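If your schedule permits, I should be very grateful for your opinion on a structural question. I have a record of one protein: its chain in single-letter code and its fold written as discrete structure tokens. Kindly check, if you would, that the fold set down in the tokens agrees with what the sequence suggests. I remain grateful for any guidance, and I place the record below:

***
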Amino acid sequence: MKNLLDAYTKTRRHTQTLCKPLQTEDYTPQSAAFVSPPKWHLAHTSWFFEEMILKKHCDNYDVFDASYAFLFNSYYNSLGERIKREHRGLITRPSITDIYEYRQHIDAKMKTVLSNSPSKTIRELTILGINHEQQHQELLLTDLKFTFSHNPTYPRYSNKNYISKQDTTKEWLSFNADVYKIGHTDDSFSYDNELGAHRVFLEDFKISKDMVTNADFIAFINDNGYKSPKFWMDDGWHWLQNNNISSPLYWKFVSGEWYHYTLSGLQPVDVDAVLTHISFYEASAYAFWAGYRLPTEFEWEIASNQLSWGSVWEWTNSAYLPYPNFKVAEGAVGEYNGKFMINLMVLRGASLATSANHSRYTYRNFFSPETQWQFSGLRLAK
């Protein structure tokens, strides 16, 4: 089990490496209900291993602190009561020192478990926990960026701004009408929402090799894209009006020039860079304005082996729904994905903030259509 222990250790270290640039005061603030503080991410990812593995499968396990089950549960109803999501930033105690001690406690216990011929169940849950923590590594960055963006000093997190450029081709890939197979089929790890491989019929379609850039989207803005209801879904238009949205998240128009907040601070918008931090509503409106549409998640998956992807998560025109024969796992693990299959849209690909070895062409990310704070963009289809 050395390889599994190594993977566990590497993942846990990377989470803490992401936190190295932080100061003590950075660990606790919560700037919106939908983002979580770094302290909470550090604790929750540890709680996952404690709750799913150590408490249930290890004899004589000593719980680090009984109150953590309430403080750091996310949405697992079967595991008891939990603090309200919007109150995570109120957890000033335990201290960040306590949370790092908690992580050390969990790591020591997990090392013992993984070094002593763990059962198949423990191995599978550990792999799930590793992937769960990798998800939270990206969320830690997106949440931190949102919180830092509300600081009027526009703090710099790192030299890496997580902005990507591309070699523009202006080419379209063509696919003939056919029956295609969708879903995860090999023995490597996947989430349950990728399973239930099945066939879909797709009509002829084309998909752009290029991602939409900042320059492309500025043209949409300059053509009154945010002021013309004909481009927008009705729900999106109401979101736009109710929230006074007039540009992608983090953009500011200063003295005739667009700037945006990045994890390297406030910077001029690079017009050649890939557009980032837009909602599904904005992606859909841009596609309509441009005379095209968003690809479905099935079109994206079929085209993915011929596309360059991974700079931003790509909005698709597919609702997040179960595949045929989708099965909900027993116990708390069954709450991981299935219960969210309503009122959300699918994104495919990965982003520059996605952890290494945490992307695959069958991966189904999902967020509500107004979501902007993720590293999300779009490519066009027709």
